[in-house]
Design goal:
The structure is a homodimer.
Chain A lengths: L6 H4 L7 E6 L14 H4 L3 H9 L1 E6 L9 H8 L11 H8 L9 E10 L5 E3 L7 H14 L2 E2 L2 E9 L2 E7 L30 H19 L7 E8 L7 H5 L3 E4 L3 H9 L3 E2 L6 H11 L5 E6 L1 H8 L2 H15 L9 E5 L16 E7 L12 H4 L5 E4 L3 H8 L9
Parallel strand pairs in A: 1-11, 1-12, 2-14, 9-10, 9-11
Antiparallel strand pairs in A: 2-13, 3-4, 3-7, 3-8, 5-6, 6-7, 12-13
């Protein structure tokens, strides 16, 4: 990114506070019957009030036409180039459940799975075993396998059939193949190195899988093996503190978003389950930080389900909640999504996402409602999501003049 | 282009069909008397219907302020960076008349010209000799000159005074100067190498010109020499099939556009003379391909002539014809131009070009008519032409999610 060439020369610290609210997957598409999107159908007086007082626009999460996962979509919102800074699934999983990760560690996503006596995968999720059963198995694995070939092994339950694994030690490489055959009815694969530096790592992992299978044989569970994927290291990425001189905090309930925030060096608050918890946390932490990332998940979940009414309700619920934020004095408030999740597509999409920035230092426009089509006529225009952060910093007066 | 870094990881094949309609030079500027552009003056109910149901915008062919030739303008529309992928005129000419070209060949555009006994060029087009005369001369040249210094020489008539030449063999370079003095009354130039690798090629070409002049001396024609320009090789560019996993076809009548389509690996249908031929071909080929590039030339020709009424008629004629396409089921239809050709400028221009995309996966906007000014208020905004292809692919659901 061009701005990275001058950023350190112009960024300055001040006391102004920025609130970035991410309504996950908030953007949508018209309902075939009404011709109205989810946002156009919802009653949301508080979001509309923000749109009225603020400067609106649309943001392109990664590139035109590209549908992002949550990783690249958030990396963009945080002001980093999402193509330059790609983050592995293992890293996200591990950070998301609060495991401490070192720079040399390899993070891995694991699934417990069922195999038959011929090593054919018969259930890639081991019947979605209960989380408690998962915890018992993981405890037994951890007791029996502390290290392999001098590499430390750390395992932790995520939920149901999912677990996260950290390989710790020198000389490890993430460039190994998965052992997941992707389809049931196929044999589990051997993990193979994808380059010469990864030969040792593949040996460690194959031994790990063998030893886990032996442990599982003695247990009463559908879990008979472990499928490994998403091998990755922490990306080499500057923290918010280093890059923006900010003291940032993440207020989110889902692991994925906490993991992403941790990667860019945010303090991550644990134990928040609901949006009410999140808003309480925001109040409690108000004095301690100058950048607040608040994440709301339900809009995306409803979009993924393709449930139009549920997404409308999620928008309306959140609209009510934000009335409880407005009396807090933030110098800059931004409400947007990380990407669109139109109910008609039942998944993430590439469509530009509505965006509003409220601050005394912006130019208000005549947009009166927070919707995709209304925001498209806002003064911000349609911009890459990775530029939003810089407009927030500017609005918070955190940039010196560039050049004389 | 940024997207090239991730494209191969997200592109997927499916059965959805994309139709890209290029109305050559369709964009215009207001008539000094009416204040209305060509599109604003034309009756075009079918194009307006597309604008009403689709998502509109403007596209910038190459860069703001840059007037493109057909080559870069089309390369952009095909989703390639037009500055990174520059295509020589010789290559376009040669491909456009259906000559098969190899990767090491040098393609050249030739003009028959008239010179006097002192080698002064008196007519750069040899009185625009009839195509039949050109064919006779070219036949004689080909009979007499099959190779020079072991390099194969292939010549073919284009039309009137124009011909195309291929130099085939190892060690040839396109970096030689033209022999065309550009103005009548000046002496024809020697071809000189522009770097050391091109010394041999310049020798071959100068001998070729000498031998052609000797042959022409014995013939009853105004053609007395041959002016050579546009020396070029096939650019190293990924095909549509490799890059987008598409099976593409070009439906065009003019050589230039067929040549461009061939360069990106499209199947090129020969023998189409009119827009009716093109539309019949579209019907006939519908089942065989998943990407259709349909080119309409008359809008550009009328613009080049500066004939406002002729351009209006060309728009209206095409509007009528596209009613015959609308019953074919395309998942994505895009109508745009490769560039503007305003009658008031009598030539190509840099002005952004109107653009509409129709698909069930786009966000409709409130644009009601297909004109420059109406489209400028569309939801697509003003975008680089090289991004259009990616929005078409996305709308046809041909991308996987990027990142987790």
């Amino acid at each position: 990114m061009e701005i990275e060439k001058i950023l350190s020369g112009i960024i300055k610290k001040n006391e102004n506070k920025i609130l970035l609210i991410v309504m996950d997957g908030v953007g949508g598409l018209p309902h075939p019957e009404t011709g109205l999107t989810e946002l156009e159908s919802a009653k949301k007086p508080n979001l509309d009030k923000l749109a009225k007082s603020g400067m609106c626009g649309l943001s392109i999460p990664v590139l035109p036409g590209i549908t992002p996962g949550s990783g690249p979509a958030h990396i963009s919102l945080f002001g980093y180039d999402p193509i330059q800074h790609q983050i592995g699934r293992g890293v996200l999983e591990v950070c998301g459940i609060g495991m401490e990760m070192n720079r040399d560690d390899i993070a891995i996503r694991g699934n417990f799975a069922t195999i038959d006596e011929n090593h054919i995968v018969t259930d890639r999720r081991a019947g979605r075993i209960p989380t408690d059963e998962n915890k018992k198995i993981v405890q037994k694995i951890q007791e029996n396998i502390k290290e392999i070939k001098n590499m430390q092994i750390i395992v932790q339950t995520v939920k149901e059939h999912r677990l996260a694994i950290l390989l710790r030690g020198k000389g490890l490489s993430p460039f190994v193949s998965e052992n997941d055959p992707q389809k049931e009815g196929l044999k589990i694969k051997k993990i193979v190195p994808l380059n010469d530096d990864a030969i040792f790592t593949a040996e460690v992992l194959n031994e790990f899988v063998d030893r886990v299978e032996k442990i599982l044989k003695g247990m009463d569970t559908k879990a008979k093996t472990i499928l490994l994927r998403g091998f990755s290291k922490i990306p080499d990425i500057d923290s918010f503190e280093k890059r923006y001189l900010l003291k940032p905090v993440c207020i989110a309930s889902y692991p994925m978003y906490k993991g992403l925030a941790k990667i860019v060096g945010m303090d991550v608050i644990q134990g928040l389950d609901t949006i009410d918890d999140e808003i309480s946390a925001l109040h409690k932490l108000y004095d301690e930080y100058d950048f607040f990332y608040l994440h709301y998940k339900k809009t995306d979940s409803a979009g993924e389900d393709g449930d139009f009414n549920k997404k409308i309700s999620a928008i309306e619920e959140f609209d009510e909640k934000i009335s409880k934020i407005m009396h807090l004095k933030f110098d800059v408030i931004c409400v947007t999504g990380d990407h669109s999740t139109p109910c008609v597509l039942k998944g993430h999409s590439w469509h530009p996402v509505p965006l509003v920035i409220v601050s005394k230092n912006i130019m208000p426009d005549d947009v009166e409602t927070f919707t995709e089509r209304a925001c498209s006529r806002g003064l911000l225009g349609t911009i890459p999501a990775k530029e939003i952060m810089y407009i927030l910093l500017a609005s918070a007066m955190k940039f010196e003049k560039f050049g004389a």
